[in-house]
Amino acid sequence: MPRPPVGQYAIVALVALLVTYAVTPFVRRLAVRIDAVDIPRDRKVHHAPTPTIGGLAIYAGILAAFAAAAAFPAIRSAFRFSEVFGLLVGGMIPLLIGLADDRHDISVGARLAGQVLAAGILFISGVKLSYFWLPGVGVLYLSPDVSAILTIFWIVFLMNAVNFVDGLDGLAAGLTAIAAGALFVWSLQLPGEFLGPDPIAPLVAVALFGACLGFLRYNFNPARIFMGDSGAYPLGFLLAGATISVIGRFAGTPEAVGRVALPLVFTPIVFLALPITDLLFAVFRRLATGRPIYTPDKEHIHHRLMRLGHSHRQAVLVMYGWALLLSGGLVVAAVLPLGRFLLAFAVAGGTIAVATLTPLWRGGNGNGDREWTEPSPGPAEPQARGVARQPGPGV
Q1: Can you give the residue range of the structural domain that contains 168?
Q2: What was the pLDDT predicted at 234?
Q3: 354: enclosing H helix or E strand
């Protein structure tokens, strides 16, 4: 069956964007009413109480995107697989876990148990790493036990990676949008034998892309609402499902498809390099100092950028730039001649490196956290009616 037209996917993304954009103000008012408000604390970067549970609006946009996709027969054919059930129903579990954690600060064990349950549902639905291809090695087929372990680990890992990077206004939503958009473009380049019949990955990618863009209107600095754990966990869950669908359905001869196959196994790592790196550094840093890995701190990449002298917005934009460089580089590597690709990558990387280090050359004050601009509370800004908690860190 031919692939759905790109225009149909664009409509799905637009539906996700518009629904998330329209629903977010209602979720914001609900957050204030139920006291789901993030109160500034010592390790936080915002100065004013801010409503959270924005993940409800994001998930509403994703559900609307899937409903819109059902109107297009070429996309709807993917619904015949149980993968859709695993993604949408399984995704409700991290959403509910996140809501509970945003509101009541549930234990790390409860969060982890819920994440493993959600990952197990996704695995049973058919989203699994059964085989993948390594350059110079060929196709690796995984036993059922190994497949289950790797699949569940990857899903839980990404849920917490997105949550760990959710430390600045618009950062997690923007990085997810970049990863999802690049993943969608990448999936269009892959030969059919990689994605299999009626692939679900492009649909998940465009739904995430649209929903995150719609939420950014209210979440970019100065944020009027945070996504909270209720947004970070489902985003990580769905990103994991999409990347597994890209690299886990392979059923062909990679030698016949040329350069587009070469970095396939590294696709999810490159697209999600920043949240993955941030999580790994956080784990190693805390283990080295004898602290539990879930202990919060202000040593994440975005915190370091701000101490370098970047403002809140500048730190976010710098991380956007690196994410675009890595994701875009992988996408264009398959279509540009190697020489042109290396030249373009070097120029783009040098430009972003200059932007990253500019505060040093300007004599940055190393105290970027005192330069943020926050909205002044006024009649239009909701006030917390009690002491609300900050969404907890990832597992």
Answers
A1: 6-370
A2: 95
A3: helix 338-361
